[in-house]
Design brief:
There is one protein chain. By secondary structure, the protein is an alpha/beta fold. It has 3 domains: 5-132, 3-Layer(aba) Sandwich (Rossmann fold), CATH 3.40.50.720; 134-249 and 256-289, no CATH class; 302-373, Orthogonal Bundle (Rna Polymerase Sigma Factor, Chain: A), CATH 1.10.1740.10. The chain has helices at 15-26, 42-52, 60-72, 90-98, 108-125, 134-142, 169-172, 177-180, 190-198, 200-212, 250-259, 291-301, 305-321, 329-340, 349-370, and strands at 5-10, 31-38, 56-59, 79-82, 102-105, 129-131, 152-159, 220-224, 230-236, 241-245. Helix 13 (305-321) packs antiparallel against helix 14 (329-340).
Length: 373
């Protein structure tokens, strides 16, 4: 057996972090935590540090980006798992890749906003990006047999449809935050759960897939699959479709990323085909859930547009959680930001972050216009 893989976990106290800890507990002989970071949950971070005897820790509410970059470049680290919410993960991701580390990426905003910079850093320094989102992990696994881009017709991202997948349009205007947080299949953080309800999450995943797998945006499709058992699919030019299946638990994708290419027993049980299992698929309804269409348009536009979609959506979701914006106003605010955008290709990460800051400020200024819609 090889030596344990040394892991840095950025975002240790969130839902991805908690699932990662389950994987580390299951495989202490294969995985060792050497660094952890969280935004502000000091007590929980300290408890994790004690349980796993982690030598390095950081609260990025205190230390900021410098603390995260310090952890991401630890000499002893083999792989850095980025699970921080939002674009805070951009700088440690780049730092880890520039230090030659592998990156297990759970923060989809990193590639949505800074995909060009991140993929260029991976190419320059030889680091690998291993997807942690279950959908991208599924595609990654389905491509194992044939990654030749000439053979790939389409990548199919599956979507649960979120809390309101069966709601008629007239009910969506009055749904509450509490209802939006009741995901039918997954236990996730509040931001990603609400993004699942608007289908913005699937839009972000489309943009992420474009960078991870270097495909044309037109080759990425979405299909609603309520059971969340088929995590995504690859359609090849000969008409064959390969799919990856597992129960709806993030531990499967996390373990695959951290131990790749090794496969060993997992945290949870696999599917039991001695029982009845139903798999349903249907096209998404972009009239009821326009965030998916807006994300696709931003992906095709390129430049700053995907980052603008992400920044505007973050501002809108935060306002919805604070009861300052209705559920159906989220895509209206995002659409306005994209319509007003003076699009360009940022040449540096600093330009990108500055532009995103301006977009967030613009979104905040627009909130009163949409607050009662």
């Amino acid at each position: 057996m090889r030596n344990p893989r040394n892991v840095v976990l950025i975002g240790a106290t969130g839902s991805i972090g908690e699932n990662t800890l389950q994987v580390v507990r299951r495989h202490p002989e294969r995985l060792r935590l050497v660094g952890i970071a969280a935004n502000g949950n000091r007590d929980k971070l300290a408890a994790i540090q004690r349980e796993f005897a982690v030598p390095h820790g950081s609260l990025y509410a205190d230390e900021g980006a410098a603390g995260l970059e310090r952890l991401a470049t630890l000499e002893e680290a083999d792989i850095v798992l980025i699970a921080a919410t939002g674009t805070v993960g951009i700088r440690p991701t780049l730092a880890a890749l520039e230090a030659g580390k592998d990156v297990a990426l759970a923060s989809k905003e990193v590639l949505v906003s800074a995909g060009a910079f991140v993929m260029a850093a991976a190419r320059r320094h030889g680091g690998h990006i291993l997807p942690v989102d279950s959908e991208h992990s599924a595609i990654f696994q389905c491509l194992e047999g044939n990654r030749d881009p000439r053979c790939i017709r389409r990548l199919w991202l599956t979507a649960s449809g979120g809390a309101f997948r069966d709601y008629p349009s007239e009910r969506l205007a009055n749904v509450t935050v509490e209802e939006a947080l009741q995901h039918p299949n997954w236990v996730m953080g509040p931001k990603v759960t609400i993004d699942s309800a608007t289908m913005a999450n699937k839009g972000l995943e489309m943009i992420e897939a474009r960078w991870l797998f270097d495909v044309d945006p037109a080759q990425i499709g979405v299909v609603v699959h309520p059971q969340s058992i088929v995590h995504s699919m690859v359609e090849y030019v000969d008409g064959s479709i390969l799919a990856q299946l597992s129960p709806p638990s993030m531990t499967f994708a996390i373990q695959h990323a951290l131990l790749y290419p090794e496969r060993v027993s997992g945290v949870g049980e696999s599917l039991d085909f001695s029982n009845f299992i139903q798999l349903d698929f249907r096209p998404p309804d972009e009239e009821r859930f326009p965030c998916l269409r807006l994300a696709r348009e931003a992906m095709h536009a390129g430049g700053l547009a995907p980052a603008a979609f992400n920044a505007a959506n973050e501002a809108a979701v935060a306002a919805f959680v604070e009861h300052r914006l209705s559920f159906t106003a989220i895509p209206k605010l995002v659409s306005q930001i994209l319509e007003d955008l003076n699009n360009f290709d940022p040449t540096t990460v600093e330009d990108l972050i500055a532009a995103e800051t301006d977009i967030r400020a613009r979104a905040q200024s627009l909130l009163p216009r949409y607050g009662n819609t």
